[in-house]
Design brief:
Structural class: alpha/beta
Largest sheet: 9 strands, mixed
CATH class: Alpha Beta
Number of helices: 7
Strand order of the largest sheet: 6-3-2-1-4-5-7-8-9
Strand content: 15-25%
Number of domains: 1
Length: about 290
């Protein structure tokens, strides 16, 4: 099975979106959430990918191999955390033997399902959208949508830090340049290894033993934990400046009164800066989340 993946920030306040497309039959599944339910990082991408794989690989269809195609954003897709989540996902689907993640060339990442966005934008011209839940209903009219909750997002970074002692060196001792990786593969036969490739040549895979001895201390384990740590214990707080701007839209009547309760209920934090959510979904991003 071949699946395209795309993440964008919709041109409406507070809404984030990630969509998956089954190439061939063009069945698209959308995952949507607002800024209080998640961010735009690798943990959100990883849990959406995991949910999508679990949904398409049912026991009845016995799919043995899944290939993802996405852009090259280091902050979201091309990093060690999403790669490790694929290993964990593979361990939970006995029939699935191999998972591939291929990264398209920067600025050449148009795929068949991009036309779906224009369909939704056309539908949006016929109605007004004021709160994130309305976007979910609008998208569901065109394609299947899933509303991601803050308690769905798993902390893959904590899992990597605790259980993976090596994600930077191959079994041959060479340093892995994650920004140049074009293909990541995980295999059921080698559950503690990642295979990366700087091209699409099947003969050029480089193996990474994620629990190899290194200066970084990791905990050896037999199986991946059944229960993974959550990223967020509660909804994410927004900045005071953003809450003020949204309330002004309510006061001026730009946002209808029936939607005011949503914005009034938003919680703020004085420490939160009023800025665009990071990391930005830019395929030229160099943030590999290796902190």
């Amino acid at each position: 099975m071949h699946i395209g993946q795309r993440g964008v920030l919709l041109k409406k306040p507070m809404l984030l979106q990630l969509n998956f497309d089954s190439l061939g039959d063009i069945k698209v599944a959308y995952h949507l959430w607002d800024e209080t339910l998640g961010k735009m990082g690798s943990c959100e991408i990883a849990i959406c990918s995991m949910k999508n794989i679990m949904s398409v690989c049912s026991p009845s269809n016995e799919i043995k191999e899944v290939t993802y195609y996405s852009d090259t954003s280091g902050g979201q897709n091309r990093n060690q955390y999403v790669a490790t989540s694929f290993l964990c996902t593979l361990s939970r689907i006995p029939s699935l033997k191999k998972l591939n993640h291929k990264f398209l060339q920067s600025r050449h990442s148009n795929m068949e399902y991009d036309s779906v966005h224009s369909t939704i934008e056309t539908a949006n011209k016929k109605t007004s959208v004021y709160v994130p839940s309305q976007w979910c209903r609008l998208v569901s009219l065109a394609r299947r949508s899933n509303h991601l909750k803050y308690y769905h997002v798993l902390n893959w970074k904590a899992l990597v830090n605790k259980h993976c002692s090596n994600l930077q060196r191959s079994t041959a001792g060479e340093k892995i340049n994650w920004l140049n990786v074009h293909l990541i593969q995980v295999r059921q036969s080698t559950p503690k290894s990642l295979f990366v490739n700087y091209s699409f040549n099947e003969a050029s895979f480089i193996e990474i033993d994620i629990q190899a001895k290194s200066t970084r201390q990791g905990t050896k384990m037999g199986n991946w934990p059944e229960q993974l740590e959550k990223c967020y214990a509660k909804k994410i707080l927004i900045s005071i400046q953003k809450k003020t701007d949204l309330m002004q839209l309510c006061t001026k009547g730009i946002i209808p009164e029936e939607f005011h309760h949503f914005f009034k209920a938003l919680q703020v934090d004085k420490q939160v800066k009023d800025k665009f959510p990071e990391p930005v979904l830019d395929e030229d991003s160099t943030d590999t989340n290796t902190e």
